[in-house]
Amino acid sequence: MVDKISELMSDLEEKEVLEEVRKEIEKGTDPIKILDSLKEGMLLIGELWKKGEYFVPEVIMGAEISRQIMELLKPELESSSTKVPVKGSIVIGTVRGDIHNIGKNLAIALIQAAGYGVVDLGVDVPPKVFVEKVKEIKPDVVGLSGLLTLAIESMKETIEGFKEAGLRDQLKIIIGGPFLTKNYCEYVGADAFTHSATEGIEKIRGWIGE
Amino acid sequence: MTKSPEELFGERCQRLIDVRNLKEPDYTPFYLLAEEWSVYYHGKYNVGEVHYDYTKCGEIAEHLVRTIPQDAWGGPQYIWPGPVLDAIGSNTYKIPGRDLDPKLQQQFPQDKEYMTPEEYPEFIDDPFAFLVEKGIPRRHSALEKSPRKEIAFAKGALAFNEWWTYVGSLVVKIIQEYGIPPVVQGLCASSPLGVIEDHLRTFPGICLDIKRYPEEVKAACDALVPVLVKLSEFVYEKPTPFPYIFIPLHIGQFLRPKDFEEIYWPSFKKLAETLIKDGYTPHYYAEAKWTPYIEFLAELPKGSVWIFEDVDFEKVDKICDNLCFGGTLTTDLLRYGTKEKVISEAKAQMEKFGPRGGFVLTANKDLMDPNDAKYENVVALAKFINEEYRR
């Protein structure tokens, strides 16, 4: 569904889209419906990124607009009787030793827009924290992020941690980072690797379904 | 007959000047910017120890150039000396042993903004004053208030002077004993937009600014050019075509070409033109994907060196007859290829691009982690180049 909010959002018209959201809230529009438009807008941004029309700054802007809309919607969603449907869950974090979060945060914005539930463990996440969280919430997918090549060994240790805990077979694991190649992916033992969040989303869709 | 370090030094410098001038050298120059990787390769110390006791760099550097002879070495660029950063209360660099696991590499997470978007007009009006009075003190807790500021500054300057004297003596030692020059003579901050990103606004911050206040961002970049030129002249004094000036790039290549052209490129080009005209050689480290911007690079005057992480080299070769490039040895190859494969690819690359003049054989990244290159592959490659290929 492409409506005014999703269209303004994908055009990155920050002020206009926030104004429109305020109007809809005042009119009493179902916040879930507004949320759907917001997600649709973010997905359109992801599509434009994939097509090469948008680059990273546009996606960061999109994520920033989403954040502001979510702030406006939060009280509405809290008082709403309907629950936001979630299609599956993903645990994501930047692996131990690496303290960068930009790539991870972009991925989260797009994964949420695609309707999946995300648990963000932050940066410099030790393998045992990943293992504990996976035991607790049993996600469908784990996303391991890293900017520097020092993340490679941590990704490998984290995945070994899942194996030792007997969790590996129930999980799909995707790793994201600019330096990754097929060889590094095989070395750490992940199911897939990606340089871009839009590509990552497609892998996740393939695993969890629409 | 073995050549003296002096002869080797002369030949190596000539090679690196030739490629800068796009003249085919006797042999394609080969060097790696082996940063923390050289510490792991040496194997005796962790990176954190070396940040605080940087006199260990000497041993590490000698081990590197003795076992992997190259036409130039990267210098101890990977060290952000702990004593200097501590003296001025640096809050932005994360150092192993202080803020991070000592076995890890230093990091620069850009997790805090040091200028608000509302301050662009003030910055544009006088970027140097803004940096000195606001930007730098905000990033260094000890430089915020008098009288602590003056004392911290003096301590920092002394510590820096000790460090720089040490680096100077190490560079001389490697020249005298091994005949190997440093690739670069120091660091020029970055592109104008990169400086604002790195030091004041962060990556996400500058991305939002470009969307919200494009004119201010562009004006800030333009205003910064003379400051960066002055800084280079101050740091390097006498211009020389070699060693080069190291300029890492990490923002332009993330912009869509329209924003690259309108916001990033004018000040970038102005700075490059000025440095080259003055007689310096900018040595750009162009991380991430550069293929969408190759046409812009063709506009630069002759006299810069570009190391690309990810680019269509054929296209660069075809379009940019104005610049020297490198980066064809991927870390994937160096890490996962066999010795034979690394050698055969390197040889093919030298044969293909060597005759154009402006080509250096080097990796597509600064080597930091052991996973960036297998030690034995690099040793074998250097041995092949020195003992077989150049015979």
Structure description:
The complex is a heterodimer of chains A (210) and B (391). With 210 residues, chain A is of the alpha/beta class. Chain A folds into two domains: 4-79, Methionine synthase domain (Methyltransferase, Methionine Synthase (B12-binding Domains), Chain A, domain 1); 89-208, Rossmann fold (3-Layer(aba) Sandwich). Chain A is 58% helix and 11% strand. Chain A contains nine helices and five strands. A five-stranded parallel β-sheet of chain A has the order 2-1-3-4-5, with helices on both faces. Chain B has a single domain (5-379), classed as TIM Barrel (Alpha-Beta Barrel). Helix content of chain B is 53%, strand content 7%. Chain B has a five-stranded parallel β-sheet, with helices on one face. In chain B, strand 2 (244-249), helix 12 (257-278) and strand 3 (282-289) form a beta-alpha-beta unit. In chain B, helix 1 crosses helix 8. Chain B starts with a helix and ends with a helix. The model of chain B has no long low-confidence stretch (mean pLDDT 94). The chains are: A alpha/beta (210), B alpha/beta (391). At the A-B interface, helix 4 and helix 8 of A face helix 10 and helix 15 of B.
